[in-house]
Design a protein that fits this description.
Blueprint (H helix, E strand, L loop, with lengths): L1 E5 L3 H13 L3 E5 L2 H10 L4 E4 L8 H10 L8 E5 L4 H9 L4 E4 L7 H11 L4
Helix pairs in contact: 2-3
């Protein structure tokens, strides 16, 4: 699976990338929301993992722009964030995300959780 990981914290980006690559996925990194949007516009991904709190463009804005674009709206988005209040989860899902994973998450189960979310939403 080809995954776009949009995460601005270097340590979290590093361990998340390692966990996903160890599970056999190809991971493309973006350090902020604008870079994530540009990468999504340039290549196809099986899933986009978005942090909510990022510089230049936050994850909610990125998701909104992706879901507003007829060429990109089909790419599944999963939020991967520390923002865990119920209204934040609901806002992310309302924005068009297919899933919401709260940090800290189980690195060893991350790939399995992503696959389960995608299967539940018919995106796998």
């Amino acid at each position: 699976m080809k995954i776009l990981l949009a995460e601005d914290e270097p340590d979290i980006q590093f361990v998340t990338r390692l966990a996903l690559e160890d599970a056999g996925h190809q991971v493309v990194l973006a350090d902020d929301g604008m870079a994530a949007l540009e990468r999504a516009q340039a290549e196809l991904f099986d899933v986009i993992l978005l942090d909510v709190m990022m510089p230049r463009l936050d994850g909610l804005a990125v998701c909104h722009k992706l879901k507003s674009d007829p060429l990109l709206r089909h790419m599944p988005v999963i939020f991967l964030t520390a923002r865990s209040q119920q209204f934040e989860v609901e806002a992310g899902l309302h924005m068009g995300a297919v899933g919401y994973i709260v940090k800290p998450f189980d690195m060893f189960g991350l790939s399995r959780e992503i696959n389960a979310i995608l299967a539940q939403h018919g995106s796998s």
